[in-house]
Write a structure and sequence with these properties.
About 25% of the residues lie in helices and about 40% in strands. The protein is α+β, with helices and mostly antiparallel strands. The chain folds into two domains: about 1-225, 3-Layer(aba) Sandwich (Rossmann fold), CATH 3.40.50.300; about 235-354, OB fold (Dihydrolipoamide Acetyltransferase, E2P). The protein has a six-stranded mixed beta sheet with strand order 7-8-9-3-10-11, with helices on both faces. It has a five-stranded antiparallel beta sheet with strand order 2-1-4-5-6, covered by helices on one side.
Length: about 350
């Protein structure tokens, strides 16, 4: 557990935040310039705050009042940045083992070989960084940070420069890392999709101040109402091409089929589908005679609402988020546990190679 109260003052900017994060994956999110990276750098020790304190499991690593300052390298935090900066003259294996070889044997709790297997890098160990894709480089950077057996893993928008398939892949790897190694994570992002897909709790920061802490969906909904500058939510689904006819291609996702614009792909090809939460229509009755090609039955699992706006989570075999209004929820009589239908056009679905 990490708890903190931090203040930092710079020309034209100030940060004043307090929080207590548990053992799960916590997201710090907000618009650009809100102070997310500054907060992360304070926690890591790369920036010294003006005042306040930081405690990890009850032990102070910084306190201005008590004149406590633990150097960054002694905090045992792993750090991953937006660009997976690797040593260009070292192989994947050597990059991952670089920091691991520098720490005492008594602190080597994780095996680099096991890490490469879990992050899908086992067959890439002999490659040089220039031979890797952006997603592969980022996985190596994450592996290198994990190899230090960190008390806490800090990630500063690690997926910002990656394409959708790479983002989805790394989110899945990060979930597995947390489950396998039980490493708490603090994940900085302004992507709604990433926060909802990964984090169990979240802190909203705006203009250098903490605006809320709690469940990601609750905070994100409030943030969107108040004009946070966050990205809209994109539902990402893994699927397999089931076939094509006329102007459409059918993609099987779990036990359902989704119609998309015709793709130049073979049956069995793996793909990723992306559809915005604001592109979906929800109705309690099955509609008839529509131009929209997708009408999917599902069950409402949760509803969040704030200041006239609402988000609904619908299970259609995989989780789908739908953006609507409080008025439409009330008028349609939509409640948790209810059977509903989701309607969307094939042209609303973006298709990517998996």
């Amino acid at each position: 557990m990490i708890s903190f109260e931090l203040q930092i003052t710079r020309p034209g900017f100030s940060l004043d935040v307090a929080g207590e994060f548990g053992e799960g994956i916590t997201s710090i999110f907000g618009p650009s310039g809100a102070g997310k990276t500054t907060l992360l750098n304070c926690l890591s020790g790369l920036v010294r705050p003006t005042s306040g304190f930081i405690e990890v499991n009850g032990n102070q690593i910084y306190s201005e009042a008590s004149n406590v300052w633990i150097e960054p390298e002694k905090r045992r935090f792993g750090m991953v940045y937006q660009e997976g900066v690797l040593f260009p003259h070292l192989t994947v294996k050597q990059n991952i083992e670089f920091g691991w070889k520098l720490i005492p044997h008594s602190d080597r709790h994780l095996n680099p070989l096991e890490i490469t297997e879990i992050l899908g890098l086992y067959d890439l160990q002999s490659r040089m960084p220039e031979e890797l894709s952006g997603g592969e480089r980022q996985r190596v950077a994450i592996s290198r940070a994990i190899a230090l057996s960190p008390k806490l893993l800090l990630l500063d928008e690690p997926l910002a420069s990656l394409d959708v398939p790479s983002k989805t892949s790394i989110i899945n790897y990060l979930r597995r890392v947390h489950d396998e190694f039980n490493i708490p994570m603090i994940y900085v992002s302004h992507s709604v999709s990433e926060v909802l897909s990964l984090a169990s709790s979240a802190m909203l920061i705006k203009d250098g101040k903490g605006k809320g802490f709690g469940r990601p969906a609750d905070l994100l909904l409030a943030a969107s109402v108040n004009g946070s500058g966050l990205d809209m939510f994109e539902n990402i689904m893994e699927g397999v091409v089931a076939g094509s006819a006329e102007h459409l291609t059918k993609v099987r996702v779990a036990q359902i089929e989704i119609a998309v614009r015709k793709q130049n792909k073979k049956v069995g090809d793996k793909v990723l589908l992306s559809v915005g939460a604001n592109q979906l229509i929800i109705t309690p009755e099955e509609p008839k005679l529509l131009s929209a090609r997708n009408v999917l039955k599902g069950c409402v699992k949760e509803i969040w609402s704030n200041n006239g706006e609402a988000l609904a989570e619908v299970d259609i075999g995989s989780k789908i988020m739908v953006e609507l209004t409080e008025a439409s929820v009330k008028d349609l009589g939509i409640v948790v546990g209810q059977e509903v239908f989701l309607v969307f056009k094939s042209s609303s679905v973006k298709v990517f190679d998996a």
